[in-house]
Design brief:
Elements lengths: L30 H15 L5 E3 H9 L5 H10 L3 E3 L5 E4 L15
Antiparallel strand pairs: 1-3, 2-3
Protein name: DUF2087 domain-containing protein
Pfam family, one: DUF2087
């Protein structure tokens, strides 16, 4: 049992967000669903400890959805991908969950 888990979330898999060909049907509007999706994308598309140039990030995200700029922005804002100040390099971050992880919402 996971009774020690702080905020139990509905354990809906992200698989239902994808069509049979592996492409994302839509970017979820609900923050919890979107965060689950972003965690999945970060874990499956980006290796830990590796630097990615922006074109590589775009190409990886474009493989799942045409609105790769939105996905990239969500990944950075949510703390799943870190970005250098000049925006040239991205790196997968430790999963959010610590204070400051994905607290600020985009209005």
């Amino acid at each position: 049992m996971t009774s020690h888990h702080p905020a139990p979330r509905p354990a809906r898999p992200v698989a239902d967000l994808f069509s049979a060909d592996g492409r994302l049907k839509a970017i979820p509007r609900k923050p919890a669903r979107r965060e689950a999706l972003l965690a999945h994308l970060a874990a499956t598309l980006f290796e830990d400890g590796r630097d990615y140039r922006e074109p590589e990030v775009n190409e990886a995200l474009l493989a799942v959805h045409e609105d790769f700029p939105a996905l990239r922005r969500y990944l950075v804002i949510g703390g799943f991908l870190g970005r250098t100040k000049d925006g040239s390099t991205y790196r997968r971050q430790q999963q959010p969950g610590s204070p400051g992880g994905a607290i600020f919402a985009v209005a």
